Amino acid sequence: MAKQEYTPTKQMKFTFGLWTVGNVGRDPFGGPTREPLSPAQIVDLLGECEGCYGVNFHDNDLIPIDASPKEADLIKRDFRKALKDNGLVVPMATTNLFGDPVFKDGAFTSNNAKIRAYAIQKTMRAMDLGAEFGAKTYVFWGGREGVETDAAKNPVDAIKRFREAIDFLCDYSIDQGYGYRFAFEAKPNEPRGHIYFAVTGSYLALIPTLKHPIMCGVNPEVAHEHMAGLNFVHQVAAAIEAGKLFHIDLNDQEFGRYDQDFRFGSANLKHAFFLVKLLEDHKYNNPRHFDAHAFRQSDYTDVKAFANGSMRTYMILADKAKKWNADREIQGILKEINVNDAAISSLSKRYSSAGAKKLLAAPLDRVKLATARLPYEKLDQLTMEVLMGVR
């Protein structure tokens, strides 16, 4: 791939959130380092980033929670114009169910029935707003759905309450004809000490119990699985295998730290490579959303460098994945280690009484099998050489 071909294209469906490039640099220990931008200004900034496809929002990223109807109409008018002027779309929307004090002890899982009802009401209105701008994916991140002490909530009740809320909102989407697909985003902790549905697998287990499982999938985020020390590629693979990868949040994260939301590929390049390779090999074609933000030290010129860099890194790693797949030595090792035997495989793929008897009688010599070569050190080194650009 020539250098100019690393330039992002809209076909890659790269998106950013209003809350990502619009992040003002605040952290728990210090105030903002950048002046806030309006939603329309954020769209204009992304419009200057070649290849950007769209922009996503929480309801209150776009419309402040206490905005009057007149104020909301003006904001939406300016936002819509900016989208049109910059050729951007809104593929995904979500609800802020974590920022306001009313959600200090959860939204759908709150112990207070009126708070649970308000959370559903707020989400219905946010779904209306997302649909107004054409969003077709709706993400649910339960940022306050958890506890600091299990004395506070019955976790079985919490799961039931969450399920009831999602079933209700699925029906609302169907009734309104919005055509949403719901995508659930897991996180192990922060801002709660312990968040329900801590990992992607938690949601993959929940989905079959929902009233409308077909319209529900997941939105895994790199940083959230890395916070827990997990291999994100494996979580995404589970979602792909289940047919439930509806959306993905790309960023980066040092393992075991707080939620850092670094630029994609900037901390764990090999993990990022295998993630991109997985997505490209399986022809993932939903939005590739960068849920990250620039360093606190950055000005808005550098924020554009952050956005451009996120997309460019993905494009470079996609090219590296093609090189890895085409490398004869690497493919030779893969052929060597993936030992196929059609006759023996047919006995264990699907159970039958006759097949089980044949399998029990099969001459499988464990001592001989243990001598098979597995040159994984060489394979990993070749991978590193592809990444370092010397192959």
What's the short version?
The chain has 16 helices and 10 strands. The protein is α/β, with parallel strands linked by helices and 391 residues long.
List the main descriptive attributes of the protein structure presented here.
about 400 residues; 8-stranded parallel beta sheet; about 45% helix; alpha/beta; 16 helices; TIM Barrel
How would you portray this structure in words?
The chain is α/β, with parallel strands linked by helices and 391 residues long. It has two domains: 7-326, TIM Barrel, CATH 3.20.20; 328-387, no CATH class. It is 47% helix and 9% strand. The chain contains 16 helices and ten strands. The strands form two sheets. Strands 8-6-4-3-2-1-10-9 form an eight-stranded parallel β-sheet. A two-stranded antiparallel sheet has the order 5-7. Helix 13 crosses helix 14 (353-361). The protein is globular and about 75 Å long. The model has no long low-confidence stretch (mean pLDDT 96).
List the helices and strands and how they pair.
Layout: E1 14-17, H1 18-21, H2 39-47, E2 54-58, H3 59-62, H4 69-86, E3 92-94, H5 113-132, E4 137-141, E5 146-147, H6 155-176, E6 181-185, E7 194-195, H7 200-206, E8 216-218, H8 222-227, H9 232-241, E9 248-250, H10 269-281, E10 288-290, H11 300-326, H12 328-337, H13 342-349, H14 353-361, H15 366-369, H16 376-387
Parallel strand pairs: 1-2, 1-10, 2-3, 3-4, 4-6, 6-8, 9-10
Antiparallel strand pairs: 5-7
Helix pairs in contact: 2-4, 5-6, 9-10, 10-11, 13-14
Helical proportion, percent range:
40-55%
- The fourth-level CATH homologous superfamily of the largest domain is Divalent-metal-dependent TIM barrel enzymes
Spans of at least 5 consecutive residues whose pLDDT stays below 50 are: none
Evaluate the radius of gyration: 23 Å
Task: Output the number of helix runs.
Answer: 16
CATH topology of the largest domain: TIM Barrel
Largest sheet at a glance?
A: 8 strands, parallel
3D shape: globular
Number of strands: 10
Q: Give me the CATH architecture of the largest domain, please.
A: Alpha-Beta Barrel
Helix-strand category: alpha/beta
In the residues, how many domains can be counted?
2
User: What's the mean pLDDT score?
Assistant: 96
Strand content: 5-15%
Beginning-to-end CA distance, first to last residue: 13 Å
Helices and strands, in order, run as EHHEHHEHEEHEEHEHHEHEHHHHHH
